[in-house]
Amino acid sequence: MDVRVTSDPQAFEQTVFPFLQQDPVLHTIIMSNVHERANGTARAESEPSYFVSVHDPDVIGVAMRTPGRGVYLGALQEELAEPIADAYADVLPELPGVAGDRPAAHRFARRWVERRGGSLTETRGTRLHKLIDLCPLSADGGPRPMRADDVGLVAAWSDGFAAEVADMVATDNREWAEQRLAERTLRIWEVDGQSVCMVGYHLPLLGVCRVGPVYTPPEHRRHGYAGALTSHVSALILAAGNQACLYTDLANPTSNKIYHQTGYRPVADFVDVEFSA
Known about the structure:
With about 280 residues, the chain is an alpha+beta fold. The chain is built from eight helices and twelve strands.
């Protein structure tokens, strides 16, 4: 078994995408992050990313670590977690944590703590869903595309979303909002001329679009806006000939129920594990 580490996203993409594209929904996080860095559409970063591939002799597992985040393992096989942890320990002095399939994430975490000390804590569970049979939801008001005069609002809402999601990295959300405008990948729900909710999505990659972020300011919640707008965005994705998927927080039963009503079904569960001194 051969474990390789690189900071070259183009080379990594060429090496591992034949393996990952066997299930582009299951591997959506790694594929989109690598692709955006390989084609230059990711925002500028002050540190390198570190990508790992395991070969025997073909690729059998991958992992990534992008600046400011922990290692992401995705659906990695448990038995590959320790050699990948060793590979990262050889190039990184510290990590905030690891995320992925529970057995693999915990095995990686135990190996990391064994080598570097400290302790580990499982902090969050997430579930990947795939849209199987769309069932449109309705609410007062209606959807519209993001406009140029929405950039400030969308940036502020993105700040609010980041504050509620534990693994978000602080970024320039105005730049992020401007990119959503340029890509036309964000929709807003409006009621009587007032914007009340936003839903974004990633451009298709191998026929898969990942929905998110989904954000409704606290004062506008419990009116069905997020469900209605998510179903609208999902319909746009399907109409373009692509598959739709999204992640939910397992600690939020409301959102999981809404997405189930929309027609999303579970694909896999993942966990976040944090390291502390």
